[in-house]
Amino acid sequence: MEDISYSFSRNMHGFKLFSLTRTDFEVRNVLLVSDQTHKQTEVDEWEQEETQ
Known about the structure:
Blueprint: H1 4-11, H2 16-21, H3 24-51
């Protein structure tokens, strides 16, 4: 059974070399952090619209 985060990063063109040069844990960490940052940005934008 293949690890989902590994196959995800391997199948994304931009992440091919990335997944080879880093451990699965680091790849999973970066994907998780970037996902959280994206969500937080959306929340910030929504709050700014509400206050205007």
